[in-house]
Amino acid sequence: MLNANTEFLIKSEESSNGALIIQAYSHPPYDIFRNTMYFSRGELVFTANLKSKRPVYRSGLNATEVTSYQYLGMTKIAGALNMLPKKILRQNITNHSTNEVIKIYQTDRNYPRFYNNFLRNSDNGRSSLRITNTFSLEVTSIKLKSIGNDIRLHLKSKMPLISADEPLPPRGDMHEYFAPASRLSRIRQQTCHCTIS
User: pTM for this structure?
Assistant: First the structure.
């Protein structure tokens, strides 16, 4: 389904001496997944990851599957198969549970609570955690951008590799304090259809 419903757009970044940018757009029936990889800064930007509001119309694919497929395609096109993102940017967040986490943080400015609420309780955070686990990456810190409701996740490689089958930690109460487990370290434009094999 993704082979027939995914397009890749190759661009060059004006501000970085033509550095490579690849956008991936997957549009299985009634769902939209649009992500962009900025190779010069190692940042994967999630622009839109939306499922149909009506479950009967959903494609059955989840964001982890689609992001993995798209990322493999982007790195294959770029000739950078061993490159993993250093950052993920969740852009233009519309998800209710994530926006609630943002509002709590804007009120109390409690970073450890924000970190845990985002990754453990919000839909975007849990999805990010699944994706980073699949890529064997660890979220070292998160940052709410000063304008808007974008959240940037800073990542590092995780060793040993963690199985994608390993369950996520249980959800918790967003309004309670969760102490973190460890101290947080403070080319030309063209459209390509790509089959990954």
Answer: 0.77
